[in-house]
Structure formats: structure tokens, C-alpha cells
Amino acid sequence: MPDFESSVAVQATPQAVFDFVSRIENLPKYLPTVKQAESAGGDRIRVTSVVQDESRTQDGFFRHAAPDQPLEWGSDGDKDYHGSMEIADDGGGAARVRIRLHLNPPPQKAGEIEQRSGESFESQMQEGVERCLQSIKNLVEGTGGKSEIPESGGQ
Known about the structure:
By secondary structure, the chain is α+β, with helices and mostly antiparallel strands.
């Protein structure tokens, strides 16, 4: 199952949510594994993430035009990884934020991830999407911070 999706209502205008999530320097504040993000010019980006104590830096793209258009991202190194975020008016001054993520690693890599964590690859990815959305909600509403992924029991 390489596709993951979830959404959350945020008590803020779509513009306020867009202003927060579209700033590259804010990516480490709401993406669960991202520790550093920087612009590489235009829609190019360089991201350093840490997963299960393994640090990895990758180049990719991060496109964001306007609140009524999806933000899109992907990695140069992994052609089977990309996603989008839609921000819509949910009525009453609230925004609905929906993330769609596609990640289909080679079976060996997914197996390694599962073995190291003791959880299925699919459940870990879904949890990451939901934690990302919770972090956005917390930060934009001013009710909390980043929803971190807990360390696995064996580490």
C-alpha cells in the first residue's frame, strides 16, 4: 500500500495555514522526520531527515503557488516518493488540510524498516502523515508544537 492520506480541520483561515506550511524554514517544525530544510533555488529544496537514528540528506522539489492550489513535493533520489497538500475553506473561518503521500520503497527496504521498528511500514507511514497534520494544527492554532514520532522500543 504505497498511498497514504489524511486530513484535519484547523481553526485558521486557509491563507494563514498556507503562509505557515509554504515556508521552507517551517518544514522541520511540522514534518515528523525532517531536521533541516533549505532552499536550493527556485522550487528546489535540500532536506535532512533522521529516521531510526539514520541521517539522510536529499534534494528534491517543493512547489507552492497559492492557498487554492496544492503544495507538491518529491525527492530526486527516490522517484517513487511524492506528495501533495491541499488547503481548503472548511467554513466558519476554519481550513481543511489534506495530505496525500505516495511512497513505495523496494520490499527489502520496507522489510528493514519494519524489522527495526516492530511495526508495519504502512502503519508507520500513516502515523507520520497524521502526526504531520497534528503538528500543523498545533502550530497554526498556537496550541502546541511538533508531534514527534516516538523512538521505537528497541532503540
